[in-house]
């Protein structure tokens, strides 16, 4: 009868880890596709499968949150953590969809740089998320969060530089529109990684 | 003296219904204008009047929320419900404004498809909002929320297809810029409908 | 030992005032640069220094919030106030960066109008923020908040008019893309000012 009030904290951590794993898979697949300079049907389908798994797991977190009385962290932090980690996957998936729909093929050096930075950031972020289960590593996690803030700054410069180059060298306005959107999306992924890092930081500080 | 602490729940529901009615009016007017393929002064003025009424009612919800001690649902859910339902109206109003300002006239088949889907979604959403007054229908409301999630997926595909067509067939880059923005706004309306559905779902699950 | 539970309210107000001062500096610098019609290295560096100070102060508010048990207002209002006031500075800084990166020089009358309105709005907003320390002026602060809502409406019209003019008179699509983004950013600054005003209004109403 009181089952719904008991803290199944381990389940929350299990679900967070699952979304974190999906985000790592998405970043990895995006990196591969970008290095190859082409997005085929198989890549689009694999990415959509990852995104779908991410959605379902996020949905499970929120459903669990709405039914659970005692939670391991503040409710709004759990909600934000799941939602924004899932947003990382959504935006990567959207980029892959656009590269395909907009017929943008060929290796783009600036996008490769973004994909490498996104891959690094998402892997750091996944480590930080997984560390939340054990607060003994909190100093290490906080250092990762600071690093994710620096990577977001780097992403800002990358976007500015990439768009400036585009305006200088691309003469077809339609291509400018397409690539500008892709670069902005890439930077958005790093923005969201920073947002997740800020949530993680808040969780650790509140428990100190 | 204690008047402000008493739960005037019926007033909250009355205000929600009023915003929901405004959103249905806005979607209906947008559908008509899109089917006719022209936005005249009268349409712009009618839409702005609806938007103004939506704003005022949302303002009334938030003012009431700030003064009320006991509320029928979680405070943040009430705030999100009113705010996001009002955002539906704001984005529809913005689209009508842009169609006029950008001088985009003529029937656009893709936009008609969007307007029909928006009209359906907003009507479902309004039913779900009005159902919150009586939790006996909660299963039916939850089914509507699931359906609104599917409609948002459909909206994503519509936007991708519409923008892909635009890139393929429209040779004037200025027109590409204009229509791309309209399609993105149309999809945003469906995104917000899904967000409202998620809030409704949370309200129901928490009360179960 | 109980030090962390004591309300150092004065510190919160001091930090809010500091972010408000940064936003006034940013708006002032943006106005000057816009009136001169050129952004030199010194301007970019000064703006980045302001933005950096704003970031650090916002970070201090959130760090303090996470460690403080009793706060002068609702926690989410403190968080939103600092975060959104900082967003005002971020978007102004981003605009300056883009004007430089996109090589948009020369006095642009529409942007000057925006810069003047932003300068007025940010100064009003800073007064309202500073007034929160003393609730005796609450009627005056509420009047300022209403005025900031009107200024945002004015900003909407300015953006629509500016973009319409751009579509009519600018024949280079790349320039259309660049300026459209600047005008939208300018309007976003006024949107965020209105959001901050709404938070201030909520703080006052809850304390009434």
Shape of chain A: globular
Let me know the number of strands of chain A.
Answer: 0
Give the count of helical stretches of chain A: 6
N- and C-termini, Cα separation of chain A = 33 Å
Task: Assign the CATH architecture of chain A.
Answer: Up-down Bundle
β-strand percent of chain A reads: under 5%
Average pLDDT number of chain A: 92
Here the CATH topology of chain A equals: Methane Monooxygenase Hydroxylase, Chain G, domain 1
Question: Assembly type of the shown chains?
Answer: homotrimer
User: Into how many domains do the coordinates of chain A divide?
Assistant: 1
Low-confidence stretches of chain A: 1-7
Evaluate the radius of gyration of chain A. Answer: 18 Å
* Helix and strand run of chain A: HHHHHH
* Broad CATH class of chain A: Mainly Alpha
Please state the structural category of chain A: mainly alpha
**Of all protein chain pairs, which has the greatest interface, and how many residues does each chain bring to it?**
B-C, 14 and 14 residues
CATH superfamily of chain A: Phosphate transport system protein phou homolog 2, domain 2
Helicity of chain A, as a percent range:
over 70%
User: For the report, how would you describe the main beta sheet of chain A?
Assistant: none
Give the gist of this structure.
The first copy, chain A, is mostly helical and 208 residues long.
């Amino acid at each position: 009868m009181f089952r719904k009030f008991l803290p199944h904290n381990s389940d929350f951590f299990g679900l967070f880890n699952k979304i974190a794993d999906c985000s790592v898979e998405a970043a990895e697949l995006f990196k591969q596709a970008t290095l190859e300079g082409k997005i085929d049907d198989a890549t689009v389908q694999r990415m959509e499968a990852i995104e779908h798994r991410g959605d379902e797991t996020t949905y499970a977190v929120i459903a669990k949150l709405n039914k659970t009385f005692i939670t391991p962290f503040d409710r709004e932090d759990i909600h934000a953590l799941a939602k924004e980690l899932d947003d990382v996957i959504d935006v990567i998936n959207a980029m892959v969809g656009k590269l395909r729909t907009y017929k943008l093929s060929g290796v783009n050096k600036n996008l490769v740089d973004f994909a490498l930075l996104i891959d690094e950031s998402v892997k750091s972020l996944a480590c930080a998320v997984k560390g939340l289960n054990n607060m003994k590593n909190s100093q290490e996690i906080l250092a990762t969060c600071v690093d994710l803030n620096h990577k977001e700054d780097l992403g800002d410069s990358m976007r500015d530089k990439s768009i400036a180059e585009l305006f200088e060298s691309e003469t077809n306005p339609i291509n400018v529109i397409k690539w500008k959107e892709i670069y902005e999306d890439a930077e958005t992924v790093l923005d969201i990684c920073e947002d997740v890092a800020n949530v993680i930081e808040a969780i650790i500080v509140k428990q100190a």
